[in-house]
Amino acid sequence: MSSKIDLDRVEMPKQSPEKRKRNFQEVALGYGPEQAAKEANRCIQCKKPKCVEGCPVGVEIPTFILALREGDMPGAVQALKRKNSLPGICGRVCPQEVQCESRCVLGKKGAPVAIGRLERYVADWDLSTKKCPVCELLPPSGKKVAVVGSGPAGLTCAADLARMGHSVTVFEALHDGGGVLVYGIPEFRLPKNIVRSEIEYVKSLGVKLELDSVVGRQVQIKGLFEEGYDALFLGIGAGAPRFLGVPGENLSGVYSANEYLTRVNLMKAYKFPEYDTPIKKGKKVAVVGGGNVAMDSARSAMRLGADEVHVVYRRGREEMPARLEEVENAMEEGVIFDFLTNPTRFLGDERGMVKSMEVVEMELGEPDASGRRSPRVKKGSEHIVDVDTAVIAVGTVPNPLIASSTPELKTTKWGTLVVDERGRTTMEGVWAGGDITTGGATVISAMGAGKIASADMDLWLRKDGAWDGK
Ligand code: FAD
Ligand code: SF4
Fold first, then answer.
1. Which residues touch 410 (CB under 8 Å, ≥6 apart)?
2. How confident is the model over 278-328, as pLDDT tens digits?
3. How far apart are the CA of 279 and the centre of ligand 1, in A?
4. Ligand 2 atom 2, closest CA
5. Residue 430: φ, ψ to 5°
6. Helix H segments across 94-191?
7. What's the CATH architecture for 144-239+398-463?
8. How far is the CA of 152 from the centre of ligand 1 (A)?
């Protein structure tokens, strides 16, 4: 390693905005070997690495970076996978800028080490070479665990429990595993072959995946215990859409982001008629919201061939919850941002198709409970803008199916499941984690919750812990 630290990180190549805005291929192209080695050399191998404290699953960051720069790629993979079974996914979509990278000491004087890009490089090497042996498994415990939901929370919990020697089956309602990773986040940010390969890795640990299995309908929670499962983890996400509650939202051409992205990602509507799910290819599209979901919807609309895509957000740029990188990508691709603007109704034509929306201008007042300045309407600012497609991306809420069919599970007023700090629900033998307990959050926080629950489940299954959930 050179004694002088380079304060700039190695840039990652991307498709040009002109090219990528009309295709669904991955935008970021990843480091090559020389770029990865150069970036890995920037890490000063801190004795007390702050970056690890910033990672919700505690990845051994300096260890994997050291192995990478010494050319020991299998060692780098193993160091990563000791704590994270889904590194190719995390390397692409984790908000590293507010987690590990925000704690990196190099950030005090220059750019922090590009930990996410290095993680992606190592994970992609593993997936393309398949040279690493499966992580060690403990001897069979004789215990059976059911995990409901195959999103990042469920997959992490399942992988960890399998490594601890338990027999694990994941029940997934949809025909494909991965949760939001397959039906929400688009191909151009997270290729589905990466998600499938990492699910295959989890299966290689012995985890069984039962698709098209809706728990709460085909089988109840109590039924799973009757079938012989000793413990259950609920990682069922918060996938039901939230709407604005304004007139005209039921017009044709107004979609929830959930439906819009599911059609595009899971059902491959952008390949219609090769795939049989259609989607309206709007020419003037408005996406309402300011988070990652809004960015994904707007950038998908652009790729479907829109002339103009507007993100309509009631606060300002500073308040946007979306990842900075994704906002910049959307701007480069030509998405127009209408800040401090909010729709009040949608108007349709004689066939019931949306043709315009009324919006009002907003101004920011005092900070609210979330710490963000609360928007209020500027009087007399309402005006009509033409749109032929609108996508509502203002958040999601949990699907009430399991909670409503299992009275032992307590919920909060937002419909999320009540859990304690170990992930124990109010029902004996049932843990939960991820978006179903927090509301819409992040991939890595869901994985962190799966990890915390799996550790406590293991203790309990081995009878070292009594059940004292609230
Ligand atoms: P989910 O991923 O929602 O998985 C839950 C699974 O449970 C689903 O597969 C569902 O079908 C299944 N399920 C539900 N009910 C049942 C049932 N009754 N029986 C059986 N199965 C059931 N986070 C980031 O960190 N970075 C990003 O860039 C990012 N972008 C996002 C973009 C979009 C469009 C969306 C929607 C979210 C994004 N997020 C992002 C958030 C992140 O994806 C979620 O926080 C995370 O996926 C939550 O994981 P989970 O395992 O709790 O739930
Ligand atoms: Fe390397 Fe930064 Fe972590 Fe230190 S804090 S070990 S420099 S990545």
1. 417, 418, 425, 426, 470
2. 777 879 999 999 999 999 999 999 999 999 999 999 999 988 989 888 999
3. 22
4. 104
5. -120, 125
6. 100-103, 115-129, 152-163, 180-183
7. 3-Layer(bba) Sandwich (3.50)
8. 7
Would you say the CATH fold of 242-396 matches that of 144-239+398-463? yes
Q: 50: Cβ below 6 Å to ligand 2? A: yes
Residue % of the chain over a pLDDT of 70: 98
The minimum-distance atom of ligand 1 relative to the CA of 239 is 3
Give residue 466's pLDDT.
82
Below-70 pLDDT ranges, the chain? 1-3, 269, 277, 470
Structure confidence at residue 135 (pLDDT): 76
Cβ of residue 45 lying under 6 Å from some atom of ligand 2: yes
Residue bearing the CA closest to ligand 2, atom 1: 43
In whole angstroms, give the CA distance from residue 404 to residue 348. Answer: 36
For ligand 1, whether the C-beta of 149 sits within 6 Å is yes
Calculate the dihedral angle through the C-alpha atoms of 29, 33, 38, 39, rounding to the nearest 10 degrees.
Answer: 50
Closest by CA position to 66, among listed 83, 90, 54, 49: 49
Of the candidate CATH numbers 1.10.1740.10, 3.50.50.60, 3.40.50.450, 3.40.50.150, the domain formed by 242-396 belongs to 3.50.50.60
N residues, the chain:
470
CA of 364 relative to ligand 2 center, distance in Å: 38
Can you tell me the distance from the alpha carbon of 311 to that of 307, in angstroms, rounded to the nearest whole number?
A: 14
Q: Which pLDDT value is given to residue 3?
A: 59
Q: How far is the CA of 378 from the centre of ligand 2 (A)?
A: 47
Q: How remote is the CA of residue 327 from the centroid of ligand 2, in Å? A: 26
For residue 52, how far is its CA from the centre of ligand 2 (angstroms)? 8
Q: What is the DSSP letter of 146?
A: E
CA of 111 to the centre of ligand 1 (A): 31
Cβ of 68 below 6 Å from ligand 2: no
Q: Does residue 423 have its Cβ closer than 6 Å to ligand 1?
A: no
Domains of the chain, residue spans: 17-129, 144-239+398-463, 242-396
pLDDT (0 to 100) of residue 2: 47
Q: Does 43 sit in the ligand 2 pocket, CB within 6 Å?
A: yes
Specify the CATH class of 17-129 in words: mainly alpha
What does the pLDDT look like over 336-351, one tens digit per residue? 999 999 999 999 999 9
Is residue 170 within 6 Å of ligand 1 at its C-beta?
A: no
- The reported pLDDT for the residue numbered 1 is 46
Bond before 273 cis per omega within 30 degrees: yes
Look at the block and give the residue holding tokens 């000491």. Answer: 105
- The minimum-distance atom of ligand 1 relative to the CA of 434 is 52
- Report the nearest-CA residue for atom 39 of ligand 1: 442
